[in-house]
Amino acid sequence: MLSLQGEARFNRRAVKVAEAQRRVLEAVQPLPPETAALWRCGGRYLAQSCEATVDWPPFARAGMDGYAVHAADTAQATAEQPAVLRVTGTVAAGQVYAGTVQPGTAVRIMTGAAVPAGADAVVMLEQTAEAAEPGAQAVLVKAPAVPGQNVAPRGEEFRCGAVIARPGTRLGPGHIAHLGTFGYAEVQVHRRPRVAIFATGTELLPVGAPLAPGRIRDSNSAMIAALVESCGGEAIPLGHIADDPAAVSLALEAALDEADAVITTGGVSVGDYDVMAVIMRNLRGAAATRAGAEDPEGAAHDLLGAVVREGAQLELPGQGAVPRGAGHGLLFDKVAMRPGSPTSAAMVNGKPLWALSGNPGACHVGFELFVRPALRRMQGSSSPLHRTVNARLGAAVRKGSPHDRYVRAVLGERDGLWTAELLAFNKSSMMASLPEANALVRIPAGPEGAEAGAEVTALLLGPLHE
Ligand SMILES: Nc1nc2c(c(=O)[nH]1)N[C@H]1C(S)=C(S)[C@@H](COP(=O)(O)OP(=O)(O)OC[C@H]3O[C@@H](n4cnc5c(N)ncnc54)[C@H](O)[C@@H]3O)O[C@H]1N2
Ligand code: MOO
Ligand SMILES: [Mg+2]
């Protein structure tokens, strides 16, 4: 069985969270654009610039059902002494009134219809009455109208040519409404990353299996799939694999062939069976190996295959230069944070590979900090990192830590300020607090934790209204 010898397993160098994020974001590229039907574009990232193709509204539009009038005709109107206007026709939404409204006349009009030429105001139906004389075709206006009343002028909201959405914008329902308005039946959006996911761990069982002594179900794979889908990726679940280097290497190669990115969970620490740690370690030397290789793809293949053939006896080059954005090699294999310190990431032939921790809490944090921003970037996002807010801690944190901690929390508003209540059961190995958390709160490294009311940074995990 695979085993890392001596000191070799301990010389991983921790990088800071921001540096690890920078390395991942520099390494990945937006996927090519594709054409998608507008109604399927919610949550997708624009790969084109979109402009208003007409003034909006495109014509002066009635905002009420009532009568289109000359405001001046109604200046003296009261309930007791209404203005009497001759009604010359009706215009429904979608119709265009052929004539011009002359002084002393009115046209009955419906909400959304084009206000006829000549009229400068719409009087709502409730401020009018039918004329008493039968067949008189007249309306009594009981209140004065002012010019422009209940009329949305042409171009009030958008001028033709104005930019309505830029490349990198994540399309929400509001953007979709604009694009529909301006005739974008199809839109150029970045392709969704196809993300293969597999778990390593001999103890793992499929979710549908009964428990057996010492065994647990692979819940991380499904959690990661949900996380991938929540940021626009397409999850390709590949199941779980025993801690067998040959099997894991093969699965990894198949996953890399099939997908744009791969996420694994488990086996990244220093245990005897932590297979992913060895695979990531072998990618450490990738830059050096590749420089001397005639066939870079072949070299990459060897780097994975070497685990199978040679296990821990590999000749491992030193840390060397990290090939940032270069498309192949380790990005980091330790992060100065809790939980998730063994979280690792690499590029393999231009595709990102994340080896997340097996501990569910650490797996979740690793995804949020290093995978979500990158999947956003692969979709062309112009702001891939989490939105953060400054919040006050609801209660003191008594525990110090040598590294920044990312603690699951519920963020809410108290006395007009964001307040973060840290959740119980938020250790790396725990999952009880996962569903409730709407933020990850950063507790800075230090010997003493933090006081109640201390200002902290909270990374928003999802829309707060959900
Ligand atoms: N001697 C040391 N031991 C450990 C260290 C260390 O520095 N020195 N680091 C600890 C830290 S921190 C973490 S985090 C974990 C990381 O463990 P791995 O990423 O190697 O994960 P595993 O060993 O495979 O599993 C850990 C834990 O999670 C459970 N697990 C694994 N996969 C799944 C899954 N798909 N679904 C649900 N649960 C899963 C697994 O059964 C273990 O209980 O290492 C510490 N150890
Ligand atoms: O770094 Mo580990 O994820 O804390 O427990
Ligand atoms: Mg382990």
Automatic annotation (TrEMBL):
Keywords: Magnesium, Metal-binding, Molybdenum, Molybdenum cofactor biosynthesis, Transferase. Pathway: Cofactor biosynthesis; molybdopterin biosynthesis. Catalyzes the insertion of molybdate into adenylated molybdopterin with the concomitant release of AMP. It is an enzyme of class 2 (transferase). Pfam families: MoCF_biosynth (PF00994), MoeA_C (PF03454), MoeA_N (PF03453). It catalyses: adenylyl-molybdopterin + molybdate = Mo-molybdopterin + AMP + H(+). GO terms for cellular component: cytosol. One of its GO terms (molecular function) is molybdopterin molybdotransferase activity. Its cofactor is Mg(2+). Residues 196-377 form the MoaB/Mog domain. Its EC number is 2.10.1.1. GO terms for biological process: Mo-molybdopterin cofactor biosynthetic process. The keyword DNA damage does not apply. This is Molybdopterin molybdenumtransferase. Belongs to the MoeA family.
